[in-house]
Amino acid sequence: MRLKIFLAAWLLVALSVGPASAQMVGHDHAAMERLGSVSFETSCNAEAQLRFNRAVALMHSFQFGPATDGYRGALAADPSCAIAYWGIALSSWSNPFAGFKSPLQLKQGLEAVQAGRVLKAKTSRERAYIEAVAHLYTETAILDQDARSVAYERAMERLAADYPKDTEARIFYALALAAAADPADKTYAKQLKAGAILEGLFARYPDHPGLAHYIIHAYDEPALASRAAEAAKRYGAIAPSTPHALHMPSHTFTRIGDWQASIDTNLASATSARAADQPADELHASDYMIYAYLQTGQDKAAGQLAEASVQVFSRFDPTKANGAAPASAAYYAHAAIPARYALERRDWASAAKLEPTPSRFPYAESITYFARGLGAAHLKDAAAARSAISSLDQIHDKLAQQGEDYWAGQTDIQRREVAATLSLEEGRVQEALTGMRQAADLEDKTQLASVTPGPLAPAREMLGEMLLADNQPEEALAAFEASLVQEPNRFWSLYGAAEAAKRAGNGQNARAYFQKLLAMSPHPDHPERPQLVEARQQATP
Predict the structure, then answer these.
(1) Residue 267 belongs to what H/E stretch?
(2) Contact, 223 vs 188, CB < 8 A?
C-alpha cells in the first residue's frame, strides 16, 4: 500500500513541480509552478508526501523559506510525518556555501531536530536523516562550524551507504561533500568526488533540480568550471520558478568568462527575485551582472544597475532573508557593487570616498576599506591609504578572533595590495613588487567564495600592471596570463596581456589578446575608450 502511495505522490510532484504544468487541487501554489522533478520516499500519508516532495524541490533550489512552509504543510497534513522536521532543520541551515550561521539559525535547527526525535520517525531510514542533520546543530560548544559540517558529511556518507537505492541520500551526501571542501585544497578532492556522484545521477534524472544545481556548486572554481557547462545550460529550464535556478548558472558562466550568458541569466534572476520579494537574491544577481557588464565595456549599464541596487538594499530586511542568498550576501553585494564600479573604471576619487555600511559581517566592510585604500594610494593620499590599511588590520584581527579564517585571509590579501600600491606610488618599486607578489601568492592558494563573481582587483593583474609600469613587459605578460587562468576574459587582464606582449615585441601574441578584448566588448558604451581604440588599431596586422 505504501508503495502505491509513494508512486502516486511521485507522479503528482512530477506534474506539479516538473516541466508539465498540471494544477494541484487543494494547494495554494501556482498551477504553472516549475521546480523540477523530485522523488523522496517517506512513511507519511499521500497528502503529506506530495507537500513534502514539493518542499524538497524548493530546498534543492535553496528556497529555504518556502521550503520550510512546505514541510510545515506536510506536518499539517500528517502530524506523524517526523521526517518533515529533518527538512525544517536542513532549511534552517540555509545555503551551506554561505558562511557562518547565526544563533537564531542554530536555535531553530536544533528545535527542529529535537521535535523530530520526539515524534519518532516510523522508519530507520528517516531516523537516520534526522540524526545526520543533528550533527550541524549539536556539540556547538565543542566543535566549530567546519567540524560540524564534516561530521554531517560523514553521517550522510554512512546513510547513503546504508541505503544504496536512496537517490536523495546520495544527492545530499554529494552536497555535503562539496560544502565541506577545504578552500585551500587545490586538489579539489571533495569537489571532484561530489561531482562524480552528481554527474552519474544527472544522466539518469535530467529534470532533478538538485543535481544540476550542485554540479555547478561542486565545480564553482576556475579550474573546474568547464565541467559544469552542461548543468549550467540546463538548470534554469529545470526550475525556472525559483530565482536561484536562474542565477546559479552565472557562477559557471563567470568562471569561464562568458559575460553575455551571465548578464542574460542574472537579468532573469533579478526579475524573479524582485517578484518573490527576495532583495538579497536580487542584490546578489546584480553584483554578478554588474561585474559582467564591466568586463564588456558596458559601464553605463553597470552604473544604472549600481544606482538601482541602492534602492533594492533599502528594501532589504536581514531578518526576512528566505531565499538562496543569506543576509551576508546582501551586505556583501551592497559593499562590492560601488567598490567594483569605481575600481574597474579606475575612478580612484570615487573609490576613496566610499563609506562602509556597518553590519555583523566585517568582511563586507573590508571591501569598502580596500577600495578606499586603493583609491587613496593612487591619488597619492598616503594618510588616507594608511588609515584604510589600519581599518583592514582591525577587521583582519576581528575575523581571525571569530574563527573566520577564510575571510581573515582575504582581508590580509587586501591590506597587502593596498600597501604595495602605496609603496609604488611613493617610489619604492621593489618593495611594491615584493608586496604584490606576496599578495598574489596568497590569492593563488585560496578558493573564490561563491558570494562574489570575482576579486575586486586580482593581485596577479595588479602585479602585471606594476611590472609593466616598471618596464618589465615579459614578466608583466606572465602575470597577466596567470590572472587570465583564474579570471578568464577579464577586461583589464586581456588589455594588460596585449599591451605587455606588444612592448615585449611579440606582435602576434599582442594581436591575439587585442582581438579577444574586442570580442569580449562587442557593444561598449564608449567605443572611443582608449583601450578599445588601441585594440582596434592593433588587432589587424
Answers:
(1) helix 259-275
(2) yes
